[in-house]
Amino acid sequence: MLRILVGLIYGVFMLGVALAQDQSFWCPQWQADRPKEIDITGQIIELSFPVATLETEDGQQYLVRLGPWWFWARQGYNLQKGEWVEIRGFLKGRLLFPRVIHTPKQTIRLRDKVGFPLWRGSWSRGLGRGRFRGGWESRTPLRRGRR
To answer: Model pTM?
Structure first.
């Protein structure tokens, strides 16, 4: 009887975990009042990782959250001061969380369609900084005595 009860509790727990796999599970405070996606075009007037300042043609300025420098380096992304860009992302006040940045030379992808940062990765995406295959630098787990 105890085994059945423990099995039932475990099953309910696993069902809850399976249902919670929505992206909002990872960032509940972000998802609670997530703004709509917008497009903004402008020029990068200041660049200092992890933030850039974007100025639109009408003079409005936005702080753009770029994410960690190691993610940019790993993806081969590059952004220059003075460059004109088109950003599709999420705006909260004057703070812009870009999902995609289009430059004349490349397309920079920083977040998925619901705003989840790609540098955070996951086991299923293989973008995380873990030590397992598909993770950071695609390393396999280290074994004792071998490097």
So the answer is: 0.64
